[in-house]
Amino acid sequence: MNPSSPWLELAAFVAALLLITKPLGNYLLAVLDPNGRTFLDPVVKPLERLTFRLCGIDAQRQQDWKRYSLSLLTFSAVSMLFTYFVLRYQDRLPLNPQGFAGLSPALAFNTAASFTTNTNWQNYAGEATMSYFSQMVALAFHNFASAAAGIGVAAALVRGIAGHSTKSLGSFWSDLVRVTYYLLVPLSFVFALVLVSQGIVQSFGPYETARLVEPQSVRIQKIGADGVPAVDTFGHAVFTEQRVATQTIVQGPIASQVAIKMLGTNGGGYVNANAAHPFENPTPLSNFLQMLSIFAIPSALTYYLGRTVKSPRHGWAVWTAMFVLFLAGALVAWKAEAAGNPVHQRLGVSVADGNMEGKEVRFGIFESALFATVTTDASCGAVNAMHDSLTPLGGLVPLFNMQTGEVIFGGVGAGLYGMLIFVVLAVFIAGLMVGRTPEYLGKKIEAYDVKLVMLVLIVLSTAVLGFTAWGAVSEWGRAGLNNSGPHGFSEVLYAFSSGVGNNGSAFAGLTGNPSNGDWHYNVTGGLAMLIGRFLMIVPILALAGSLGAKKRLPASAGTFRTEGITFVVLLVGTVVLVGALTFLPALAMGPVLEHFLLQTGQLF
Amino acid sequence: MKSLLLELRSSLLAVLTLGLVVCGAYPVAVWGAAQLLFKEKADGSLIRDPDGTVRGSALLGQPFSGPSYFHPRPSAAGTGYDGAYSGGTNLGPTSKKLADAVEMAAKAYRAENGLPETEIVPADAVTSSGSGLDPHISPSNAELQVHRVAQARSLPADTVRVLVAKYTEPRSLNVFGEPGVNVLLLNRALDALPKDSGTNRR
Predict the structure, then answer these.
(1) Would residue A547 count as lying in a domain?
(2) How far A284 CA lies from chain B's nearest CA (Å)?
(3) How many domains are contained in chain A?
(4) For a surface tag, which of A56, A117, A287, A529 has the fewest beta carbons within 10 Å of its beta carbon?
(5) Has residue A271 been placed in a domain?
């Protein structure tokens, strides 16, 4: 064993992230400018023009915040309906070699909301539910479109900040199409091929069936004719022997979907086990590259911010604040998982191995803990280990990451616009402390702007806590639990934190789509995701419009500088304080309580 | 109202046009390039007998329980290593069910491998993976199983150890992740040994 290799890997991760931030940020500058030039122009420009012509869109036409919102909302609504109907009727559509049935209305609504909002919460097991057509068309469409829309909103906000007495925030249609064509598709294509070289599947054939090397006979619980597990006269379960001689080997267009699910911080797995499955994440190297690809665009967007507002150091200050929060979370999660489970260790499990429940041998403790941190910092939500089985503190980190509002690098676009909410708040607080009108990059922050910021924060935290409270006291909420005690509460809290945060990872023991057809989790989850996405985007576009219309004031000696250490500390403090004040009581009832009970050996 | 209708029309057309590119051209292009460059991997790294029968994938674990085979980790995928239903137990750290399962697995592991009751067992030997299809076990887990397998096959332990070392996949680039022993490949290699290779010494 080489104890230094996790540190080396962490260093390699940070170095690689730093290396790609500037070049990718520069590329974003060209992509997000309707007249920007890129090296792909000879190939893509004709396609871009053709697309605009086919859709009857004038990409040069500037939009104010209301029109930008209208375009985004109609596009999202239309594409969500499209997905809903494809999922409902996948049995009548092509590319369904396994003959999967159409989805129920509640599950189709939840899934359509989930993918439209860049969440990718999954109340289903992909390999046992979705046809190739549904995966490729209904779901993968949003992996691109919701990512591009998110980046567009971030760009619109940055344009508002950088603007001077202007109403225009750019064009939604231009952002959507250019981000998709120049950024997401080419990057995903290259990345998908790299992933195939590591072993990820990309095929269209039906599932293979392998003849097992050693056929097994397994004991399974007998199910009666009524679908309920059979019991004998003493109430004990009845078991039957079953011979298992074959193994199904999943096929499908997996690599193309995994590439964009990571780059677009979508996170929806092709198969149930997501990035823990060897076909989605075969090697430690593929794991490293997937973690890097989650952070790539959110990190580059901070550079885009700095360059656009003509203060590169401001961009790097925002990056640093995100990085500090990321590093703290990664170290806590790593140490918690490495310490392992004291109850299991008393049963004779090796202490040095850490908590391996729900983890893959090839990733081990460190890559699993780092992945869990990265995927919840960014609103990706792919998982390479089962978060439900993390130690209490190891599970607290992802939970809190999501509750910060997904601003630690965050989702593509969503991370930056979310963090800028906190920047405005931090500047406002600093202004109050020194008794001056707060200014952000020469823009006066006034009552209207702060109201919008608070609207976002209050709506999001109310949605998380409100739905959690409802679930925790309801029959339907408790029926879905896989664990009891504080961990059961954590499952509900995690579900709605993930939904509202548009993350999509889960304490996956929770059954969101029960076989008795109860719709509550599907519908409340779907609503939580829609609220978390659109009740955030619309106030943010309004804020962008308000900031853009203001005059830019020259900096004076009394201006609060939005760069350097003071600003970073203030920003980190704001994020942590708002998150902690809002969610500490709930966290205390979940993971914190569980941590102390685990130390005393209390089980549920 | 007019602007809403305009946006609706653009939205519909954009869904169709973008859909053709990102749901049609993109996955098909990846498929074409992948089949051309990495056909074997793009098809799932399948392992076949000489007659073409598929026996598994080099990336997916399979269940083994006989004494002459190395045993993989416990699995929560279906009835165990069910490729059509990947997943973990999703049991939390304070779950009694999980603690009981770990205790039973540790007892069974010690009994199978002739270890004393106080022997510390490797964590991966008694816990389920995230996918339920983990192809690997840790090298220390494999080492504890060497004697049982060698005995069942009447092979010298060192012959088995050589194969274990051969099928231990190192960290990527020597830094990333953890080393793991690929159980399916190792067991296939054991089966492929000439039948009399160990009998000389016993």
Answers:
(1) yes
(2) 5
(3) 2
(4) A56
(5) no
Q: Which of A249, A280, A299 is the last residue of a domain?
A: A249
Shortest Cα distance from A20 to chain B (angstroms)?
Answer: 19
How far is Cα A368 from Cα A371, in angstroms, rounded to an integer? 5
Q: How high is the ipTM of this complex? A: 0.95
Query: Minimal CA–CA distance to A507: which of A527, A485, A528, A492?
Result: A492
Q: How far is B143 from chain A (nearest CA, A)?
A: 14
The amino acid at A178: R
Tens of pLDDT, residue by residue over A123-152, are 998 888 999 999 989 999 999 999 999 999
Q: Is residue A508 less than 8 Å (CB to CB) from chain B? A: yes
Cβ distance of A278 and B172 shorter than 8 Å: no
Cross-chain residue pair A197–B177, CB shorter than 8 Å: no
Q: Would you list the domain boundaries of chain B?
A: 2-43, 54-192
pLDDT one-digit tens code per residue, A68-90: 999 999 999 999 999 999 999 99
Does A359 reach chain B within 8 Å, measured CB to CB?
Answer: yes
Interface contact A180-B21, CB threshold 8 A: yes
Residue A115 forms part of a structural domain: no
Cβ pair B14, A52 in contact under 8 A: no
With an 8 Å Cβ cutoff, are B8 and A360 in contact? no
Question: Are A317 and A426 spatial neighbours (Cβ–Cβ below 8 Å)?
Answer: no
Tell me if A196 and B53 make a contact (CB, 8 A cut-off). Answer: no
Domain assignment of residue A78, yes or no: no
Which residue range is the domain that position A221 belongs to? 208-249
The reported pTM is 0.95
In terms of Cβ atoms closer than 10 Å to its own Cβ (0-12, 13-18, 19+), residue A327 is: middle
Whether the per-residue pLDDT at B198 is higher than 80: the answer is no
Q: Which of A137, A173, A391 sits opposite B93 (nearest CB)?
A: A391
